[in-house]
Amino acid sequence: MLQVLFNGLVTGAILAPGAIGFTLMFGILRFPNFAIGAYITIGAFAILFFDQVAGWHIALAMLGGIAVTALVVWLTDLVVFRPMRQFPPISLLVVSIALSLILENVIRFIAGNDVRGFDIPLTRPVKLSGLMFTSEQLYLIALAVAAMFAMHAILKFTKLGKAMRATADNFTLAEVRGIDTDKVIAATWLIGGALAGLAGFLAGLDLVIEPLIGWHLTIPVFAAAILGGIGSPYGAMAGAVLVGLAEEMTALWFDPAYKVGVGFVIIAVLLLFRPQGLFGQPEIKK
Amino acid sequence: MLSYLISMTTFVGFFMILALALNLQWGMTGMVNFGIAGFYALGAYTSGLLTVEAGWPFLFGVAAAAVVGLVFGVALSYLSVRLRDDFLAIVTLGFAELVRLFALNEDWLTRGPRGLPIDVRPLSGVFDRDGYAIFYLGIVASAVLIAFLVNERIRRSPYGRAAKAIREDDVVAEVLGKNVLRIRIQIFGLGALYMAVAGALYAHYTQNISPDHFTPVVAIFIWMSVIAGGAGNNKGLLLGAGLVMMFLEGSRFLGEFISFMDAEKASAIRIILIGVLLILVIRFRPQGLMPEERFKGPSEI
Amino acid sequence: MKSAISRRRLLGTSAALTFTTALLPRLALGSAPISVGSLTPNTGGGGPFGPNITAAHKLVAEMANAKGGVLGREIALHQENSETNPETAIRAARKLVDVNKVIGVLGTWSSSVTLGIMPLCQEANVIQMCTSSSANIPLKDKKGLVFNFMVLSPIWGDALADLALRRGYKTYSVMALNNDFTKSMVDTFVDKVKAGGAKVSNDPFYYNGGQSSYRAEVSKLIADEPEAVFIPSYVTDFTSVYKELFRQGYEGKVITVSISTGSKFKKVVGAAADGILHGLPAPSLASAAYKDYLKFAGLKDTGAIQHPFGTAGHDQMSVLLLAMASAGTDDVAKVREHIHKISNGPGTAVTNVLDGLAALEAGEEINFSGASSDVDFKSPSGVLKSRDFVLWEIKDGKDVVIETIASAS
Questions:
Q1: Under an 8 A CB cutoff, do A106 and B104 touch?
Q2: Nearest CA in chain B to A85
Q3: Quick check: is C363 in a domain?
Q4: pLDDT (tens digit, 9 = 90+) per residue, C324-379?
Q5: Count of CB atoms situated within 10 Å of the CB of B119
Q6: Fewer CB within 10 A of the end CB, N or C, for chain B?
Q7: Interface membership of B82 toward A (CB under 8 Å)
Q8: In chain A, beta strands by DSSP E
Q9: Which residues span the domain enclosing C254?
Q10: Do C49 and C99 sit in the same domain of this protein?
Q11: Of B98, B171, B274, the CB nearest to A261
Q12: What is the predicted pLDDT for the residue at C226?
């Protein structure tokens, strides 16, 4: 049982940065950005490039890859989303789907379909009073938790964070009160992109790197963000762990073939009783 | 080339029925549905299994598909009708994935990943190959026409205007005495029925279905059709469906000009191109190629 | 719009044709090229394999064209991407059949795609050559037009069980990627293992590809600490699964299919790959055909199996072209007969399209053996008669042959 909880936590840690990035972008930009999966793929491949082609140390490669991803994600805003700021969310959702097809295939064009991995040897598990884990899994959880705290600190204690929260609460009001919303939006994309880059690193550690790696994470990341209540970084983290747990338990005690589906069912049931998500505030309709 | 155009037109026909269904749900009433592939699959498997396993004739199979689509559509919308747009997107997408997983795993019924061969077709002995292609296109075209006329009828009726009021603001519509819940469920159910019929027609056309036919990608294409064509405008989205198919298939002919690249790269370029074209259409025609028509007469509401 | 495109294409094609006729005096003037379609999974689940297959098709077609084509006509290859998705593949196949008027559609990989395009290919009298393992394929092939370059998957299960039993493992657990290829394989594997007196300790289960984690599946698989686990899969999911197996400390034998353990897999998992047993219907790596293939494809002989499906793509195109040359026509009914004739022999043994064309020109009968197998088909169905089945073990990052058996199908 303890092992199941731990495994769920690991899966949750992989999903969490992506879910936090997604929820952050949703909070400010008000549309579900489907391209989050493609951003994660870019992260994984950028880190892979620094790790294997440039031959950097893995920690350095990770930072470099995160920076590249943040820049690319910000660029997608400049080129694609900025001219469409006032469009309805569903149009932007469709645009983001198209964008994710583009990004995924740019990666495929450059790198091909082959499976790849970071230059890190696999390790055997450590067993400690019934609990089994590997050192990578500990790093993984630590990185996800660090990202969450960093996010919290930015939102709570920096001027930028306060501006971001104000903008997320009420865009027009924030503008009226003199907040530079353009700057807030740029920061949102950069931070969201950095989180996606980190997610790419975590996913690449745990799974296999190929052009669909982020696509496979898209639905669980969505689910985690929604479960946690969209717009809430802590919620997204908790949602990620819950989705991870739900998937583990389904596979273990029910039928692995229905793993993805049962995750959906849990989300649906939860939403029926708590439409604002687990940790979200009820939204007041304007 | 002619028989290719006939078969592509038939495929556009399936897209058109699906797009008309989504237009009822989203364009006219404002209900998000990303579970199109689920209803499409339900229709395909219902008709396929009943005609193959139980020996039902084609028309009965299609009718049964319609009923199954309606029932599932009503049930799903009853459960999820109060959800916000983005949540409804997830729930409907989840529904479609469950249908697909069911078809994949319950071999005893659906034959799972092995796929279901369907040799039942209406009047199959009467025509030669080309003649049959035209005949089947006729069947699909009639279905498109019926769906189109029904949609237009609804759009112009007081009922349709009530649906539109719900789309604009459900609270106001409720206050004005519209039965919001009932209208939503009815419209969603009708849309699901269209989708299931489209699935049944698709199954008997391709004559072999497996869960791989019904991935969420189908929903993406249909959303592209409706958004590019013009949500709320039935004519526009017919154009949209045609356009999306042209993007998808027309880009194949480009492949012959870039044959110096290896196939992997050429395929990637083709999909990148589809994405770019779509973004450009939405960017420069945000209301779609044919924006929704406004009523000239005095408003009911 | 459409007609503009087609006019431009027409102009392009005829310009290209004039150009090639000028270059290749051996081509009979005024004869149209022979169109062949290549429909491969360049993206999606088959992405790691499709590009190799279609590249091999192109390679063989170009080799033949450089020697003046077949029947004095140029081979025009039309390549399409199935996206490993039958919904898309059907439209791509439509284009190949109706617009390009191909004589055959080569290279389909996933069974759902092969079966999905079968109705339209049968209707239009078009040959199909595939590497799909569904037992449904020969049943649905009413006209005998489908040639399968992979043995059906029950045979894989049987052979792998046989090889495992000979190694003396007594308890097995089984899980598999959820698709047509693996399902029949699991059934026969389990039956055979049980018949051999060993125990299958779990209730075999299936997982879906493209998951965000495989932790629970792996825990479930090794819960009873079996001596060996059998995991039929594809390379993408298997790589993730194997990383997880290793991290959960499993020390028993891992048995899988070789398509999951190619060089890319070994590169990803590194030294941890040692000890994996894997099997595949394969030519002996020492065969002339396989060595030819490596040379043509510009690959180094690493001693490991490379391009498991690319080799099949090479054989598909070679067999089709040689059959046309042998039949002296591109009439499908005749070509179909000659596919059986040149692949089963008797005749001069040839292993590539150039030798084959030369031998046919010299008036000899030929027997083609390919880079993927001997390519001998049963008649009337296009199912392979047999393929050698090889079991390898990964030692120091290299595949070492443990055993070879001939499997009858």
A1: no
A2: B283
A3: yes
A4: 999 999 999 999 999 999 999 899 999 999 999 999 999 999 999 888 888 889 88
A5: 13
A6: C
A7: yes
A8: 126-128, 131-133
A9: 153-282+388-408
A10: yes
A11: B98
A12: 95
- Asked if the C-beta of A99 comes within 8 angstroms of chain B's C-beta atoms, the answer is yes
Q: Using omega within 30 degrees of 0 as the cis cutoff, is the peptide bond preceding C346 cis?
A: yes
Residue ranges covered by each domain of chain A:
2-273
- Subunits with 3+ Cβ pairs within 8 Å of B are A, C
Residues of chain A contacting residue C250, judged by C-beta atoms under 8 Å apart: none
Instruction: Decide: C402 and C163 in contact? Cβ < 8 Å.
Output: yes
Which own/partner contact pairs does B118-121 have at CB distance under 8 Å and 24+ positions apart? B118/B48, B118/B51, B118/B52, B118/B203, B118/B204, B118/B207, B118/B208, B118/B209, B119/B52, B119/B207, B120/B51, B120/B52, B120/B57, B120/B58, B120/B61, B120/B204, B121/B58, B121/B204, B121/B207
HEC string of C381-400 equals CECECEEEEEEEEEECCEEE
Q: How far is Cα A263 from Cα A225, in angstroms, rounded to an integer?
A: 13
DSSP string for residues in A111-147: H-S--B--S----PPEEETTEEE-HHHHHHHHHHHHH
**Which chain A residues are Cβ-neighbours of C48 within 8 angstroms?**
113-115, 210
- Looking at chain A from residue 214 to 273, which residues have their Cβ under 8 Å from any Cβ of chain B? 219, 222-223, 226, 230, 255, 257-258, 260-261, 263-265, 267-268, 271-272
Give CA–CA dist A250/C213, Å, rounded. Answer: 12
Q: Tell if the CB–CB gap between C247 and A116 is shorter than 8 Å.
A: no
Chain A residues within 8 A of C239 when measuring between CB atoms: 115, 117, 208
C284 has a pLDDT exceeding 70: no
C351 shares a domain with C399: no
**A contacts of B272 (beta carbons < 8 Å):** 101-102, 105-106, 109
Measuring CA to CA, which residue among A14, A7, A10 is closest to residue A202?
A: A14
In 3D space, the residue among B186, B211, B188, B187 whose CA is nearest the CA of residue B199 turns out to be B211
Closest CA to A260 of B100, B42, C233, B213: B100
Q: Assess whether C259 and C160 both reside in one domain.
A: yes
B81 in reach of chain A (CB within 8 A): no
CB atoms within 10 A of CB A118: 17
Q: Does the pLDDT value for residue A285 go beyond 50?
A: no
Nearest to A215 by CA among C4, B217, C232: B217
Nearest to B146 by CA among B204, B109, B201: B201
Show the tokens assigned to A269. 């049931």
Tokens coding A286:
């304007």
**Residues C221 and C338 grouped into a single domain:** no
Q: Is pLDDT at A223 greater than 90 in this prediction?
A: no
Strand partners, C172: C200, C228
Contacts of A119 (CB under 8 A, 6+ apart): A51, A52, A58
C266 and C402 share one domain: yes
Tokens 């991407």 correspond to what residue?
A: C81
pLDDT tens digits, one per residue of B75-133:
999 887 777 777 788 789 889 989 999 999 898 999 888 889 998 888 877 888 888 99
pLDDT tops 70 at residue C74:
yes
Contact A260 B97 (CB under 8 A): yes
Q: Can you give the CATH number for the domain in which C132 is found?
A: 3.40.50.2300
CATH of A2-273, one of 3.40.50, 1.10.150, 1.10.3470, 3.40.30: 1.10.3470
What is the value of pTM for the model shown?
A: 0.87
Residues C141, C170 share a domain = no
**Nearest-angstrom CA–CA distance, C206 and C185:** 12
Contacts of C74 (CB under 8 A, 6+ apart): C17, C20, C24, C27, C33, C34, C65
Task: Name the token pair of C398.
Answer: 């290299």
The ipTM assigned to this model is: 0.91
Q: Strand, helix or coil at C175?
A: strand
For residue C15, the Cα-to-chain-centroid distance in whole angstroms is 35
* C289 found inside a domain: no
Q: How many degrees, rounded to 5, is the angle at CA C321 between CA C320 and CA C324?
A: 90
Residue B35's φ and ψ, nearest 5 degrees, are -105, 25
